[in-house]
C-alpha cells in the first residue's frame, strides 16, 4: 500500500528551511528560502572545541529547530511538535498526519539515511516526509542530497531513534497557517533585530561576533590540533561551504534575505547591513579556501591569513548587526 501527498516538493540549500518550505507551500504560503531563514532569525556563529572532539566545529546558524520555532512565532503559525521515546508511537504520529494529507517535518540523524552521500553523524538534520509504502519513506531533502528521495522505513526508524549531540526524541512536527495568510513584510524588522541582539550580546565568548574573533585566534593552531590535517582541515572547510549552509557558513542565505528585504523596506540601515554581509559572505568563502589549502600543503601561513580575515569578519559582522539593530526605530515600508 502506498500513501503519498501531492505537493510542491522543491528542495533547496539548507535542510531545515527546505522542510519548512515544503510544509508552508502545502498551506498556500510560498516564501523564498532566504526569507524563511531570515524570518526565523537563523544566523548565528559558534566556535566549539573540547577534549572529547576530534576537531573544532564552526557553526553559522542557531541550534537545530530554533529556526522553526522562531519562524512559527514570527508568522503566527500553529506549530505542533510531537516527541516520544517509543518507536511505535513515533511512527503512528507521522503516519496519522500523512494519511490525513499533511506533510510532516522530521528531525533525525542523517548518518542512517540510505541516500545520504556523506556518512557523518548529524542529529540536527531535518527533512519533510510526504508519503510511504510498505518498504520506503518518501522525503524532501536539500537539492544537494537529491531533493525528492526515498529511504527504507528501517533506515528512517534508525535515524529517528539515534541519540547523541543535537538529536531529539523521534521529533516530528507540522505547521498550520491561519485562514488569512500572513505577509512577511510586517515581521521582517522584529526578526532582524532579534537576530542582531543575540549576535551582538552573546552570553559566552564562543558565540556571535566574539566567537568569530576567538576562531580567528584558534584557527592559526589547527595544523597542530590534528594528527591528520589533510583530512580534518578540508573537511572543516567543506562543512562551511557545502554542508547545507548555502555557502559561506550561511552568510549567502542571510545576504540574500537582506537583499529581498531592501525591496520591501526603504532603510539606510538595511542597505548598510546588506552591503556588509555581501562583503562578509565573500570573505567566509576565502577563509574556507585558505583552510583547505593549509590542510593540503601544511602551510601555516594559510592559517595565519585565515585568522586575520576572521578578525576582520568579527569587526564587519559586528558593524553590520549594529546597523541592523537600528531598524527598531524604522518608520515604515517602502512606498
Automatic annotation (TrEMBL):
Record domain Butirosin biosynthesis protein H N-terminal: where: 14-142
InterPro entries (alphabetical): BtrH_N, DUF4872
Domain DUF4872 as annotated: residue spans: 155-324
Protein name per UniProt: Lantibiotic ABC transporter
